[in-house]
Amino acid sequence: MDKRLLGLPQDLSPYRHFTRTEWAGLRADAPLTLTFDDLQKLQSINDPISLEEVVAIYLPLSRLLALYVAATQGLFKATQRFLDAEDGKVPYIIGIAGSVAVGKSTTARVLSALMSRWPNTPKVELITTDGFLYPNAILERDGLMEKKGFPESYDGAALLRFLADIKAGKHKVHAPIYSHLEYDVVPDGSVVIDRPDILIVEGLNVLLPNKPGAEIPFVSDFFDFSIYLHGDLEDLERWYIARFMRLRQTSFRDPRSYFKRYADLSDPEAEAMARQIWTKINLRNLLENISPTRPRASLVLTKGPTHRIEQVALRKL
After folding, report:
1. 16-30, 200-214, 302-316, range with the lowest pLDDT
2. Rounded Cα distance, 124 and 201, in Å
3. Would you say the C-alpha torsion 69, 193, 206, 272 has a positive or negative sign?
4. Choosing a second label site near 300 at 20 to 30 A (CA), which of 149, 207, 208, 235?
5. Is 2 a member of any domain?
């Protein structure tokens, strides 16, 4: 499988492509501010990550983002001077997209931890778009439970309002909360985002454009930088099934878990169920909606079979 984006020759591609070794060399003097214990707390179930991965991939990325954030803040201040305006600060927003089981949550948390440890200690916040899913009651009413995670299962208008308020520099903007244990939005639950320096928005379809003719902004219109995590289909399926089997021994056994009915399946039954869910829902969503957005990302991180990032593609400015 050719992993060069769009299948174009290097000189025609909108991306600069780096091997792992080439990218690691761009770390320069970016310090490692995470410990092994820190990393253990940040990684998701069945998403292994090592300090070597942080040094090779995430420190160079952190350094690049530090430069981008500083440049964007300088441009904003220049615009304020030109307009003779006092609009306060505008948060730098980073979007992270990719398939189920590719490791978006771990990437988002590691980046958040690294950036919050920058010398100027910026205020970094992280949200997932899961909270903007419609409640299960609405999805069941509209026959969308088997399309949960597809674009139509989200309250897109609410997500756009949230991002518009963040970009406008408003104080105390509320974002809804999602419970993965209960597999539903938490009623009346919210997290307050109060004018961060940097906001990371992680979700399956955050790079998806609108339908032709729609005269409303894309979610990605609010992003200053975006990351797409890519993996081969066979690896993604294997990672999803392994995570399902692991959860079957842990959170699925919680009486409150939406998936409790899967906890006592035999190993073959559980694996067959995981494969069915992957094929019927997650793979379909990936092929129809998520994967086509990969060329819209500022940066593409391509994982190998062990979750190790093997290739990096950075969009040319």
Report:
1. 200-214
2. 11
3. positive
4. 149
5. no
